[in-house]
Structure formats: C-alpha cells, structure tokens
Amino acid sequence: MSSRKVPVIPCSGIGKSLGSVTREAAYELCDTLRPDRTQLVALSKLVLGEEQARERVRGGFAVTIDGCKQMCAAKLVKHSGGKIAREVAVFEVFRRYKGLKPAGIAELNVEGKQLARALAEEIAADIDEIAEGDIHA
Amino acid sequence: MPDLPRRKAGIVACSGEELAEGTVTRLAALKVLHELRPGNTVTICLPLFLAGGEGDRAFARFHPTITVDGCELRCAARGTEMYSGKPAASIVVNELAAERGVGKIEGRRRLNEAGKQAVDVTAQKLAELVDQFVGKQDGPEQVAESTVPQPSEAKIATCSCGSEVAVNEVLIAGERVELLALPLIFQHCREKGRAPEAAGEDLLQNVKIYNYVPPEAEASYREAIVREYAAFCAREESR
After folding, report:
1. How far apart, in whole angstroms, are the C-alpha atoms of residue B92 and residue B97?
2. Could you tell me if residue B199 is left (phi over 0), alpha (psi between -120 and 50 degrees) or otherwise beta?
3. Would the N or C end of chain A have less CB density within 10 A of its end CB?
4. What is the pLDDT of residues A35-91, one digit of tens each?
5. CB distance B30–A19 less than 8 Å?
C-alpha cells in the first residue's frame, strides 16, 4: 500500500450550489472519510502555478470534483501536469440522486449536504483503489 | 483602455480550500453579492480565468475587479492579473483581520466565531470598495445591463458564476466571427455622438482591445463593424 496521499481538488465554484457541493464533498472526504489517504489541494494555488501545489498533483493520481461542465478543476490539474484517476462531474452524479436537490451557496441546504456525503462516499471507494495501487495510467 | 461604461464591480475570491481564511473569502464575497451590494456586483470563479474562454477573461477588462485572498500568496490577485487584468483593489483576509483585531480564524469547513467576524469585516471592506469604484447603482455613470441594446443576435459569454460579456457573431469577409463586447462599445460610441461614417477607426481600436484582429484583415473588420454599428444606430433611433 502506498503511503502517499491522494490529492483531492474541488472546483469550489462560487456561483451555484453545485460548486458548494464539490467543496463540501471534498471536506467530507478529506476530513472525515479518508483523512489518512487524501490531501486537499487548493485550486487557486494551481491557478497561480504555486510550486508545492503543482508538485502534489504531479506526484501521482488525483481526484477532481467539478460542479459545472466547464470542468475547471480537471482542466487545471491536467494543465499543471497532473494525472487524474477520477474526474467527478457533480452535475452528472446529481442525476443519480434526483431526490436530493441542493440549494444555497454560502450555506448548503440539508439535501445539498446529503448529496455531498453520497458523492464523497462514492469517491472514497476509488480513493482506496488508488491508494492500493489498483488504478494505473 | 477606452472610457466604456462600467456597470458593476467584479469580486474574485480565492476560495482557498486548505485554509479557514479561504472560506472567509468565499463567504465574504457571497455576503456582498447577495446581501450588501446585490445590484452592483458580480463574481467570477478564479479558475475560469485559466480554464475558461476569452469571454470569461474579458470580464476584468470591462469591470473594476476587487480580489479577496485568504493569505499572503494572494492567488486571486495574482491570478487575476496574470489572466485578465490588474485588480482595482485587493484585500488579504489575514492582514485585514489582524488590523481589525479579529481573533484566530479557524475551521475551514465550519468557521469559528472569529472566522464569522472576519467574514463580516471583510464583506464590509469589500462593500466600501464597491461603492468607491462603481458608486451608487443609479448613479449617472451607470448603464444598467437591461438598457444596453444588442447590436444583432448577441449571446452572452457566461460562466457558472454569472460573469457576462456579450458575444456577437458578425459576418466578416464571408466568415462568421465572434466578437466580444460590441453592445457596450457601440453604445459608448453613440453616446459620444459619432456617426457611423466617421466612427470606423475609433470602433476598430476599441474592438481590438477586447478581440484579436488579424493585421491583414483590419479593413474587413472595420467595414463589418461600421455596418453593424450603423444598424445598431438605426435600431436605436427607431426605438
């Protein structure tokens, strides 16, 4: 098993609830579900080209979580030379959880938090595979 | 840069996920957008400056942009300058918080009391800057978005966050070319009283600031822009 932590990069889009879902899911994943196997990387640092952030995403497979079809997080990780093990698009995952309608940006509603939790649980399973080395380029 | 009408202030927050101060930037920006100055502000996702298209990057060239960063890395300020334009003003939360005597900010996912206080202090500072740069919403220099006529079939370059710059398809030398910001450029030119036959060079220079115009195609662009401007003026006169 690799001791390296998997970089998790949400888009944290500020204009819509799904952007907040990406952020909440990333916190759920990195702070609660898989704190020993994941490492949150701020997308703003990648935008700026901050060297430590770039090194983190270049060092192995990353997970990106995007709220809209612009897929900013995925694009920026690739732009920074990183490899992506799982490219999550919340607007697609959302279709599988149609009962959960996220609302609110500054403060997500309960359903938004539930969607984030469900999303984080899905990704956690992938994180385990990545950490075990079961996902290869 | 031409003296184009400036409608709203753009707020770019770093939203840094790793630090509580990043959460403060996000919540402060949202507080200004939704509560304190809803009519005078828009926001832009910082990542869109790199990941987005030209329409997203064009935003800060049109609007006074205020960046708000959590830490001294100043990712929002530097990223905005790199990919769009120099911010009109910048705030760094940990510096502002220290200046205002705010306690230790903690809780990147759920802010502590000091973090909530920092949100209020930062939002207030942002609102003051918005007032400084765009004034009151109904001031004489303002051009409300709904009153800017569109020169032809305009669409809006918009991101998930609501930044908007009009994009028009114009027929130039037999090809359809997308041009940014024609409505604002045309309106500004018309307000200066320029007749279409005398406005060609002025229009072209303004269009070139926000769009790439191949040097060998300038004459074709000028002809097409003047034609669109004449149609714009005719529509305005018939209103």
Report:
1. 9
2. alpha
3. C
4. 999 999 999 898 788 899 999 888 889 999 999 888 999 998 998 889 999 999 998
5. no
